[in-house]
Amino acid sequence: MPEPSPTPAPAPALRVCALYPDLMNIYADRGNLLMLERRCQWRGIGFSLQGTGLGSPLSGQEADLYYIGGGQDRDQRLCAEDLRRVKAAGLTEAVARGAVLLGVCGGYQLLGHSYALGEDVLAGVGLLDVRTVRSDGPRLIGNVAIEVSLEDGPPQVLAGFENHGGRTHLGPDAQPLGRVLSGYGNNGVDRFEGARAGRVIGTYLHGPLLPKNAWFADWLIRTALNLGAPLAPLDDRLEEAAHAAARRAAGR
Amino acid sequence: MSARALDLKVSVAKLAGAAARASGRGGGTSLPGRLLMRMDPHAIAGLSGRLSGGSAVISATNGKTTTAAMAAAILTGAGRRVVHNTSGANMVGGIASALLDASRRGRVAGDLGLFEVDEFWLGDVLAELSPRVLVLANLFRDQLDRYGELDSIADRWADLVSAAPATTQLVLNADDPLVADLGRDRPDVTYFGVEDPGMGRDGLAHAADSTHCRRCGSPYRYESIYLGHLGRYTCPGCGATRPRPHVAATKIRLEGTRGVAFTLSAGGVSVPVRMGLPGLYNVYNALAATALTLRLGVSLEVAAAGLAGTRAAFGRGEQIDVDGVALTLLLVKNPAGANEVLATLALEGADIDLLGILNDQIADGRDVSWIWDADWEVLAPHVRVATCAGRRAAELALRLKYAGVDSERLTVIEDLDAALTHALEGARTHASETPRLFAVPTYTAMLALRERLSQRGHVNRFWAE
């Protein structure tokens, strides 16, 4: 019997799990997932996407990157309850083993401790040390640009659009995702935007976020796959032009 | 307020409108109306009260302008003299302007008001005029930065419906669960809908809305889906079900961007209709217009004839000859509307030359996220080349790239004039027999494009019916 040939190193593949894709998708969150998919495919990185809805628990092993988008108030309530009761354990497990978790807008709010809507308080999963309060004041709406430092080197810019009634405040264990260059950010007061705890990231930037910031899509892919080296470059002329236009719209 | 005082204000506002037009500043469509409203906040009530036949109001996320154009064509064919806001100026200023334009020496030249009303402004308009017929045609996800969440608009509409007097007859879309539900506690509602299982699609669109029951929160069960979240549905939770339509379309044949044929039925009578306006979405508009006019006493035959004679409304499927290039203008402004335009375009076969224009001004929605919710994937295999223009041209090109259009086929030229020239040249050089170009602009982009075309001598500067 011939010796089995040595197994080649498996080609990397990104497994993405979208939480409540049919409910938490209000700001074209699909665009974020599409960016991840194509940018993997174009580089020969495998890609798989699974959605998980109300009532389905998570094992914490199913994905390298978990994504949760924004939803209408009614849908966000349904998801908050389900996230805490059905999925929190799996999600915590996934984060503990190094998966990336990205929450955008309503998804960001649910990753914090709580979201108070008047008398009603939605409990979050507490993976970010933030608390959100729905304000009677106007919704914070507009183009936004923030400066972020995800790793050593010069800071980079994320540009997008924000539209939120909630004001989010960072707790002592939270680090902001970035500093507001233009726009409102977490609460329109402290000039912080988003929150980050290791590989758990929350932000109000949609628009959607990743098409306007291809570099950040690549950072997520690389981090989720634990790749040391930068990803192979792509022809990003349109991506860079879209990023520049989004920054221009935000005045930065 | 005396009638004479109102007439004086009408004269002042008319003069201001004439002055704005003479100075060539924009269409000036709603300016005189806004001025009149500032002088007299109840001018709409005062002027519409002079219409002997009362008024009808149409609101929806998509199709308002075309539905109103269809209803106007039908009513005009039936011998009614209609006062209506023709150019999509559908907030209070636009409605006041329409009434103003029709005012002559203390009278209104018309016997029936027909107004399309922005879904957000519906309450303000209903407070001023109690229409004989109120058509609520659909609710889709729209410009979230301007309109807010869909649920909150639905709640506001529900309040308006419950406050509406019994003399206002409701016309509702049976196939839109969010809209049909509004009629649940009202007697005497006219429902319209599609009755053609052949039009069913595989599943809900990516950006499907109101898929959960408004009453009990359970997900609807769909037997057929026709368009976005419109279809035949039941709620397994509380048993809410699609009402049976009184005005229905069967045997629908889509003919690309050239038109659509179907059988129109109401009250046991059926008539064949062929329209020059394309797509299933225009079948829905035709059903809404028919139901509205039937309630005003028009016969089904007259309605069918009016539909056959309706021309495309301002930028909604308008075709313009530009030095030998057949240019079709297809306004897009939200995912559901864009999906219908893209699906209709895809029926045109291969080799489509596209001019996409994406602006992010207030009337377009400053948030351009929605382009990622629309299914450009459906069109991508058919695109020969696409020229992307407007303030967010690059992001539209990016969307097409990620939908599967090769970068080589994409050109970004923000400046509209230069982009138009480039796209027309491309279509001409490539031409088989008749060169074609399909323009897909957002709202302000559509206005700007028509302005450019008029400067080049191809369309009337201002919309006039």
How would you describe the overall organization of this protein?
The complex is a heterodimer of chains A (252) and B (465). Chain A is an alpha/beta fold and 252 residues long. Chain A has helices at 30-41, 73-96, 106-111, 209-212, 214-224, 237-249; strands spanning 13-19, 46-52, 65-68, 100-104, 114-117, 120-123, 130-134, 140-148, 156-164, 166-170, 178-182, 192-193, 195-197, 200-203. In chain A, the strands form three sheets. Chain A has a six-stranded mixed β-sheet, with helices on both faces. Chain A has a four-stranded mixed β-sheet with strand order 6-5-7-10. A four-stranded antiparallel β-sheet of chain A has the order 9-8-11-12, covered by helices on one side. In chain A, strand 5 (114-117) and strand 6 (120-123) form a beta hairpin. Chain A starts with 12 loop residues before the first strand and ends with a helix. With 465 residues, chain B is of the alpha/beta class. Chain B folds into two domains: 55-79 and 110-308, Mur-like, catalytic domain (UDP-N-acetylmuramoyl-L-alanine:D-glutamate ligase, 3-Layer(aba) Sandwich), CATH 3.40.1190.10; 316-455, Alpha-Beta Complex (Protein-Tyrosine Phosphatase, Chain A). In chain B, 35% of the residues lie in helices and 22% in strands. In chain B, the strands form four sheets. Chain B has a nine-stranded mixed β-sheet with strand order 2-5-1-6-7-8-11-12-13, sandwiched between helices. In chain B, a hairpin with a 2-residue loop joins strand 14 and strand 15. In chain B, helix 4 crosses helix 10 (279-295). Chain B is globular and about 65 Å long. Residues 461-465 of chain B have low confidence and may be disordered. Chains A and B meet through helix 1, helix 2, strand 8 and helix 6 of A and helix 13 of B.
